Amino acid sequence: MSPLMSPPPSSPPPEPPEAPSVYCTPSPQSKAATPSPTTRSFLSRQHSYIKPSPLTKHVLSRLQSSNSTISNVLTPEFPHEHDTTKSRVRLLLRKHRRTNPAVWCVAIICLIFCLLVIFFGIATLIIFLVVKPKTPILDTSHATLNVIYFDTPGHFNGDFTFIANFSNPNKKLNVKFEHAIMQLYFKDDVIATQSIQPFSQRSKETGVVVIHFISSLVTLPPSYAKELQTQVLSNKVLYSVRGTFKVRASWGAVHFSYWLHGWCELQMSSPPSGSLMARTCKTKR
After folding, report:
1. How far apart are CA 111 and CA 8, in angstroms?
2. How many CB atoms lie within 10 A of CB 189?
3. How many CB atoms lie within 10 A of CB 228?
4. How far apart are CA 88 and CA 82, in angstroms?
5. Rounded Cα–Cα distance for residues 67 and 64 (Å)
6. How far out from the chain centre does Cα 259 lie?
């Protein structure tokens, strides 16, 4: 009988599998597959030298165009406003030139002139509102027709005396007639002219001026000469006296001048004792 055989030694129990670690530890295979930094740089250089295919180029261009369209929609640009802003910035940044002294002198003179015009305008308005100037009045109350005769059929001779009444209706203004010319008319023809010496009138003053008209060898149109003869025979002669005057009105140190026009339509009886039968006188500036 064979000696008792001892049982074979039992193998150790298998170890339980380890729990998976939270931290990923690369396996030897992954370590072998992961390139080193030097290898990666080399590979990237190789990829940079690789030319893209035509299809890739087309896709990239479409992407770029779509991106540019979206950016234009989201942020629109206004070229005109941009140019205007640029021009304004350039104007602001431009170096200012020094103004010419002559320009300043002209501007100061214009300013002084405008101020003087405004001052005199206001002063004139105040004077007119306070003084209320009125024009002098021309009138007559007496006239004499002494002579009318015809030396030849076309030449007229006459003698006429006109008493002119000038009155100053202003309460605060004094007037002076610096220049005065009186003319005697038959129809629209001048048959005599007489000037008057300058004279002055105080406020509310009335003056009388005697004007002697002499007509010597005055040529009249045949129709006018015939009509004048007819009027003499009918004892109704129509004359007209017109005057032009330059009047200077003064109120203290303030004075101003203007032209005055007056006329009187007269109806006279026949000479030699022709007298005033009717009149109409007007005066205006």
Report:
1. 134
2. 13
3. 21
4. 10
5. 5
6. 30
DSSP 37-90: HHHHHHHHHHHHTSPPPHHHHHHHHHHHHHHHHHHHHHS---HHHHHHHHHHHH
The distance of Cα 13 from the centroid of its chain, to the nearest Å, equals 118
Tokens of 161: 């005396």
Tokens standing for residue 160: 């006429």
Q: What is the DSSP string of 232-254?
A: HHTT-EEEEEEEEEEEEEEETTE
Tokens of 102: 């002559």
Residues 260-285 pLDDT 10s:
999 999 999 998 888 999 999 999 98
On whether the pTM is more than 0.85, the answer is no
How far are the Cα atoms of 46, 50, 63, 162, 229 from residue 55, in angstroms, in the given order?
A: 20, 14, 12, 121, 124
Judge residue 215's burial from the number of C-beta atoms within 10 Å of its C-beta, 0-12 exposed, 13-18 middle, 19 or more buried: buried
Question: Do 240 and 214 touch, CB atoms closer than 8 A?
Answer: no
The 10s digit of each residue's pLDDT in 90-139 is 655 555 567 788 888 999 999 999 999 999 888 878 877 887 888 899 99
Cα dist from 33 to 29, 40, 47, 153, 249, whole Å: 6, 12, 19, 150, 123
Residue from 169, 168, 170 nearest 131 by CA: 170
User: Reduced to 3 states, what is the DSSP secondary structure of residue 20?
Assistant: coil
- Give first-to-last CA distance, the chain, whole Å: 180
Residue in 195, 191, 201, 202 with CA at minimum distance from that of residue 180 = 195
Residue with tokens 């109806």: 267
Beta bridge partners of 152: 155
AA identity, residue 162: F
Amino acid at 40: R
DSSP per-residue codes, 250-279: EETTEEEEEEEEEEEEEEEPPTTSEEEEEE
Contacts of 227 (CB under 8 A, 6+ apart): 187
Tokens representing 96?
């200012």
